[in-house]
Amino acid sequence: MSARVPTSTVFRGSPPPARLDWTAHRYRAPTGRSGVTFPDINGRIAVTQGGIPINDNIRAAIADEQRYLTVLYQRLDDFWAETKDSMARALRETDGTPQGLSERDVATAKYADRLAALGAAEYGLCFGRLDFDPASRSAAESLELYIGRMGVYSKDYESLLIDWRAPAARPFYLATAVAPDGVQRRRHIRSSRRRVTGIDDESLVLTGTSAADAVSARAGLTGESALLAALDANRTGRMNDIVETIQAEQDRIIRANLNGALVVQGGPGTGKTAVALHRAAYLLYTHRERLANSGVLVVGPNTTFLRYIGQVLPSLGETAVSLSTIGNLFPGVRAELIEAGPVAGLKGQLLMAGVVQTAVRNRQRVPAGYIEVPFERDSLRLLKDDALTARKRARSSRQPHNKARATFFAEMINFLAQQYAARMGANVVGGPNLLDESDLGEIRTELRGDSQILAALDELWPRLTPQQLLSDLYASDAALAAAAPKLSAAERTLLRRTGITAWSPADVPLLDEAAELLGVDDSAAKARAQRQRDDEVDYAQGVLDIIEGSRSADFEDDGEEEMLVASDLIGADLLAGRQDAEIQTTTVERAAADREWTYGHLIVDEAQELSPMAWRMLMRRNPTRSMTVVGDVAQTSDPAGTTSWAQALEPYLGDRWHLENLTVNYRTPAEIMDVANQVLAAIDPQLIAPQSVRETGSAPWKLRVEAGFLAESLVRQATAMAAGGKKGTLAILVGHEQISGLAAAVESLHPGFAPASTNADPDLEKPIVMLTTLQAKGLEFDNVIVVEPAAIVRESDRGINDLYVAITRPTQQLGVIHTEDLPTMLDGLVDYA
Ligand SMILES: Nc1ncnc2c1ncn2[C@@H]1O[C@H](COP(=O)(O)OP(=O)(O)OP(=O)(O)O)[C@@H](O)[C@H]1O
Question: Can you list the positions of beta strands (E) in 536-615?
């Protein structure tokens, strides 16, 4: 059998303008790319247009743009030097007071951020230009605007480059021939380092009224040449920004209002992740004051995905965004335990909030009758009725468990003091009335210091951490039965676990729930901090006394003029403060360490995967409900995930959220989407697939092999696929249950061939990787081989969704290798030839 050599990407149709084939609802890109440029073998710029070498006009235009770009980079260098100077000055100039130190840290953090933004702008600083119709501009307005990664001004404060996020840059993304907004020409400028390598021009002046022109414009695809070049480029294992080619439907979402909840539903490859990240950058630019201190949180499905998207925001000059999975949102816990679907499914249900609440209440106990506790030479009794009263008072304080504990203890100590006093009074002449309130106070103090009394009270109302609460709950049938009476015995068995050393992502919202109900009793920590502070003040006073002493001695000795010394400027309090001045941390660091941090804006990617309990946790992090939720209900894998946005959000938002749809698939070629559509129909015939923006001419194939030859065939096909056609990255996607066996078989044949994702963080930059379908969520590769679809479908109740995710990952080619019969929904695959 010979390896099938895929044809290279063909953009079908006639040269620009772009065409939309409305019968097929599929965009066919033009054959030639206008003004596409490639450095030739000698490093000079060779320019072609539709395959024909370009003329001197274009060469001259490139030279013009180069001159402009050089000026921009000069200004960038000026800013860099100025910022570095300012930073050095800020570092030097501090009066040494805690306030001064803190101001210095704030200033240096600001300059560091600015340097990071300047560094990010180095690549592709300027990528666009708009030329306006003079009739549409006032005399004060420039007829041309350059668009880039950041705003750049001349020394005279004349605008040289507009930040892509500024309102003035919008026509670059929105203007069409039908609605040009005064724009006559949109130019995409490509550069490598500081050198202009090419330009793509689009005229927005309708010269004819051809239907194709009008349709193309209506479709809202802008900058088609640059867009298609970006889409067809090889992938690297890291996501890139799309700032140069944002499309109109995406732009609307990116720039939507900060307030309120926006839900973005879109099929595979519609740019949901890209849009979500650019929205974060846009919001930080537009609402910097409001968001700088509260921060923006981006939640993704797993750490592999976060690493995949990790460089997008820094490349846009934004570093003040927190990225996290649900599993890592609880400070101090890294939830890496993988557990069975039904277990995670159950833990994700909202009813678990009630289970955790009951589990906490069940730890607030009262004795069956009484508990006898030795005290002095006698004993005291913790009585059931007293405990009931104390518990009632503690609960009605509405404090969380660990804080209400103080009320319970105080009440019980009071009861015990009265008991003790009564007993003492009965033993002395004159009876209990001989003891007054101060005597009772002393008795209480004694009781509070008695370890046996405290231990007995602790049994009734223990101080608990969330981890302890859940471990104890999972470890005991009785505790589970008491906390979850509504669950069946089989369901409670799913929750049973002993000797817990690791947590799963589904445990994290439960830990968070427990933390809310338990609260942190920080009275001991506060008292410790105060004692430490008092010690430091004492120490500082000692230092000042020594300085004072030596100053007087100096003054007496040589009779010199009085010198100004430390104690003239600062007191002991201030000196102590200076000693323990904390290192200023960034918003991202402070937020990560603080479970109760509330973010100014929340972005949730692959949001369909979130369980009701995960949503509950996230809503606590975002009380203002300023959020962007992006996902696809057809791609849900998590057993507790959602297939309906209304259902997922109703408990927190009611109907106060706005839905936007993304409809164009930028990733997956049309040939593959034709097959994927059948899978989508099997998930839900009502769902509509996004329209692919391009074809590759390469039909997705299937190959049946003998079970014993699966690994060998896989290596052969992967090698052929990786070597042919567009090359780039290749992923082998396998079901969770199969991956270990297959990885071992492949490894024994060809060590190091396809590193499998046996750890939680596979290296996506390797040319060939093996992943589970779950790990591939949100990722993309040039080429993909899906192994044994029947097994993927079988693996979970949402196996068809997983298959849909798997086959929509490629940007170029898809192959399917199987030993079992294929599910009929894959009938559209062609036999491998
Ligand atoms: N306007 C654009 N310009 C260039 N590339 C784009 C554009 N929009 C999307 N893309 C590219 O399309 C690919 C798919 O985007 P993205 O991963 O954001 O899609 P998605 O909707 O999140 O997909 P999925 O739901 O399948 O995970 C990425 O390579 C992205 O860079």
Answer: 601-604
Q: Is the pTM of this model over 0.95?
A: no
Q: Is 267 annotated as a binding residue?
A: yes
Q: Mean per-residue pLDDT for 31-43?
A: 34
Which domains are assigned to the chain? 54-222 (no CATH), 248-330+595-665 (3.40.50.300), 346-499+508-513 (no CATH), 670-831 (3.40.50.300)
Question: Residue 658 forms beta bridges with which residues?
Answer: 262
By three-state DSSP, how is residue 617 classified? helix
Q: Which parts of 342-447 are beta strand (E)?
A: 370-375, 378-383
Q: How many residues does the chain have?
A: 833
Q: How far apart are CA 539 and CA 45, in angstroms?
A: 71
Cα 692 from Cα 690, distance rounded (Å): 6
Q: Does 272 belong to an annotated binding site?
A: yes
Residue 324 CA to ligand 1 center (angstroms) comes to: 20
pLDDT category of residue 328 using cuts at 50, 70 and 90: very high
Residue, of 538 and 320, whose pLDDT is higher: 320
- Looking from the CA of 84 toward its CB, the CA atoms found within 13 Å total 8
**C-alpha distance from residue 621 to each of 283, 402, 541, 595, 626 (Å):** 18, 21, 43, 8, 11
Q: How many A from CA of 274 to the centre of ligand 1? A: 6
Task: Report how far Cα 88 is from the mean position of its chain's Cα atoms.
Answer: 33
- Residue 270 annotated as binding? yes
pLDDT-based confidence at residue 334 (cuts at 50, 70, 90): confident
What is the Å distance from ligand 1's center to 715 Cα? 29
User: For residue 145, which of 136, 134, 135, 132 has the smallest C-alpha distance?
Assistant: 132
Please choose, from the candidates 14, 19, 15, 27, the residue with its C-alpha nearest in 3D space to the C-alpha of residue 666: 27
What rounded mean pLDDT belongs to the chain? 83
State pLDDT tens for residues 572-595.
454 444 444 444 467 888 888 889
Rounded mean pLDDT, 527-546: 60
Mean pLDDT of 749-754: 78
Q: What is the CA radius of gyration of the chain?
A: 34
Alpha carbons 250 and 216: distance in angstroms, whole number: 17
- Is any ligand 1 atom within 6 A of the Cβ of residue 230? yes
Give the span between the Cα atoms of 454 and 552, in whole angstroms: 53
Q: Ligand 1 pocket, 315 CB below 6 A? A: no
Q: Does residue 271 have a known ligand-binding role?
A: yes
Cis, peptide link before residue 331, omega less than 30° from 0: no
Closest atom, ligand 1, to C-alpha of 270? 21
Q: What percent of the chain has pLDDT over 70?
A: 81
ipTM of the prediction greater than 0.95, yes or no:
yes
For the chain, give the percent of residues with pLDDT over 90. Answer: 55
| Average pLDDT value for residue range 166-182 | 92
Residue among 780, 782, 784, 805 to mutate when testing ligand 1 (max atoms within 8 A of CB):
780
Question: Given a cut of 50, is residue 31 above it in pLDDT?
Answer: no
Q: What would the two tokens of residue 723 be?
A: 């070597």
Beta-carbon count within 10 A of 500 CB: 14
Residue 48: what pLDDT?
A: 46
Amino acid residing at 192? S
**39 prior amide bond cis, ω within 30:** no
CB 224 within 8 A of CB 16: yes
- What secondary structure letter does DSSP report for 822? P
Q: Is 331 annotated as a binding residue?
A: no
Structure tokens that stand for 326 in this block: 């649900």
Q: Is the pLDDT of residue 549 over 70?
A: no
Structure tokens at 522: 């920080």
Between strands 657-662 and 261-266, the pairing is: parallel
Overall average pLDDT of the 231-256 stretch: 92
Strands 152-153 and 183-192, by their bridges, are unpaired
Please identify, by atom number, the ligand 1 atom nearest to the C-alpha of residue 666: 12
Three-class SS of residue 28?
strand
